[in-house]
Amino acid sequence: MMSEPQGERAQAYPPLKIRVLGSGTSMGVPVVGCRCAVCTSSDPRNKRMRSSISVQAGDTWILIDCSIDFRMQLLTWPMPRIDALLVTHTHSDHINGIDDLRCYNYLQRGPIPLYSTEYFLNDLRVRFPYCFNPLQRGGGVPEVDLIGVEPGRPFDCGGVRILPLAIMHGRLSILGFRFGPFAYMTDCSAIPEETLAKLAGVRVVILSALRHTPHPTHFTVEQAVEAARLIGVEQAYFTHIADELDHEATNRKLPPWARLAYDGQLIELAATGGA
Ligand SMILES: [Zn+2]
Ligand SMILES: [Zn+2]
């Protein structure tokens, strides 16, 4: 069903429970072999698995990205089922847990719908051909149904309306996702004007903020603060964090409405009424 991209604010939305399954950059924190202060810190919030969240929207359970740490993440913060997997892009830190989706295939006795752009779905077919070879289906292979989505075209998942958003990851256009009053945008280095317009009315955002030192494909903390200010959110959480950032020390310098996310964090939003 094609529906117009406008009117996000007028949508009734169920309560949202967002679990930060991982808040770390591609190597995770601690980084193997690194002896820096953050990597050797005893603060549990300085231990960051690869970036991913789960979203419970009413009775619907949605996973965003299937990180390398998927197994440990789901053992620690279980989802009873996965109604949909949304893939922001196919870099290894965001998809290489795909083989462990098998556990949910067994639990649910069926394939898991996987949503991304055609560009990334094709990349999945190339990178994980064994998942899409019919001869191997049912033989210990993760089963996903690939469903193409486009930025700006909302789709429905278990009665939950999800709006894919185009964001830039260096020169690569990847996806963020809006769920009514909430948006998740990881691996972001720029937000195009037309996407900013589609974020009107978002109250809480999870945005990536790699570190203070500039990077070609990721926002710095300062750029992420500026982007959150532009969107006009009440609360921003930053994810995809490198070992340059100590949790406490970084938070002390952030505005009161912005905080580093941490693994296991639960963010709850009340239901919003429709027009
Ligand atoms: Zn990444
Ligand atoms: Zn380190």
Give a short summary of the structure.
This protein has 275 residues and is of the alpha/beta class. It has helices at 70-76, 92-95, 102-108, 118-127, 193-198, 221-231, 247-253; strands at residues 16-22, 52-57, 60-64, 84-86, 112-116, 144-148, 155-157, 160-169, 172-179, 182-185, 204-208, 235-239, 258-260, 266-269. The structure holds zinc ion (ZN) (2 copies).
Topology, pairings included?
Blueprint: E1 16-22, E2 52-57, E3 60-64, H1 70-76, E4 84-86, H2 92-95, H3 102-108, E5 112-116, H4 118-127, E6 144-148, E7 155-157, E8 160-169, E9 172-179, E10 182-185, H5 193-198, E11 204-208, H6 221-231, E12 235-239, H7 247-253, E13 258-260, E14 266-269
Parallel strand pairs: 3-4, 4-5, 5-6, 10-11, 11-12, 12-13
Antiparallel strand pairs: 1-2, 1-14, 2-3, 7-8, 8-9, 9-10
One zinc ion is lined by residues 26, 51, 91, 93-94, 187, 240.
Can you offer a commentary on this structure?
The two termini are 21 Å apart. The protein is of the alpha/beta class. The protein has one domain (14-269): Ribonuclease Z/Hydroxyacylglutathione hydrolase-like (Metallo-beta-lactamase, Chain A, 4-Layer Sandwich), CATH 3.60.15.10. It has helices spanning 70-76, 92-95, 102-108, 118-127, 193-198, 221-231, 247-253, and strands at 16-22, 52-57, 60-64, 84-86, 112-116, 144-148, 155-157, 160-169, 172-179, 182-185, 204-208, 235-239, 258-260, 266-269. Helices cover 19% and strands 27% of the residues. The protein has seven helices and 14 strands. The relative contact order is 0.19. Strand 12 (235-239), helix 7 and strand 13 (258-260) form a beta-alpha-beta unit. The strands form two sheets. The protein has a seven-stranded mixed beta sheet with strand order 6-5-4-3-2-1-14. The radius of gyration is 18 Å and the shape is globular. One zinc ion is lined by residues 26, 51, 91, 93-94, 187, 240.
